[in-house]
Write a structure and sequence with these properties.
By secondary structure, the chain is mostly beta strands. It has helices spanning about 75-85, 105-110, and strands at about 15-20, 30-35, 40-50, 50-60, 65-70, 115-120, 130-135, 145-150, 155-160, 175-180, 185-190. The two termini are about 30 Å apart. The relative contact order is 0.20.
Length: about 200
């Protein structure tokens, strides 16, 4: 049976996504321009025996996630991430404050928090395979998503506050960040996960 004859078939779309930063005071999810989903690579160890070669899985490594934003004066995306850097323990080296520094604990608890990347469904209907969340309490609009990635113990490893400002350009100013995390969890209502 061809896929287009199946009325329940709905492909995931690149432009239907949402990125949520639970720890940040201002909602900047609608300022996100692009994001890549988590990726994973598994190192392999090779063992040779006589004229045979065998491979065994080794360390699982999660790839960094890059997120691009459009900056504005309100909400000020650049300021939001600069403040997240300060909340993680960064102090400008003035007035003898050289001993303090960034810690993982501060990044996890006071920084950007566990970043959530959601694939929105776009179906506009409530169902058992959809999850909903009200972004603004007291507002009836809900966001429906079919899958969610959570980047656990996220920390910023790069912040670029815009580049290439020029009188010759009328492009929007952007902020780009890179997020490193310990591991990612995946959840989907319509896909049974192993061990759950």
């Amino acid at each position: 049976m061809p896929f287009f004859s199946n009325s329940s078939f709905e492909p995931k779309r690149n432009f239907r996504f949402q990125v949520v930063f639970p720890n940040l005071s201002s909602d900047i999810s609608y300022m996100v321009k692009s994001v890549n989903k988590p990726g994973v690579s598994i190192d392999a160890t090779t063992h040779r025996f006589l004229n045979h070669q065998f491979h065994f899985p080794n360390i699982v490594k999660w790839d960094d996630v890059s997120i691009s934003f459009i900056d504005s004066f309100e909400p000020n995306v650049g300021s939001t991430f600069y403040n997240a850097l300060l909340a993680a323990g960064y102090i400008n080296p003035v007035d003898g404050s050289y001993k303090a520094g960034i810690t993982k604990s501060n990044f996890v608890n006071n920084g950007i928090g566990d970043v959530k990347i959601r694939q929105l469904t776009g179906t506009g209907m409530q169902g058992a395979d959809l999850r909903t969340e009200t972004l603004n309490p007291g507002v009836s609009s809900q966001t429906e998503y079919g899958e969610e990635w959570i980047l656990v113990n996220s920390m910023l490893t790069s912040i670029k506050f815009g580049e290439g400002m020029s009188y010759d350009s009328d492009d929007l100013v952007g902020v780009d960040i890179t997020v490193k995390y310990d591991y990612a969890t995946y959840s989907s209502q319509n896909v049974p996960l192993v061990g759950q």
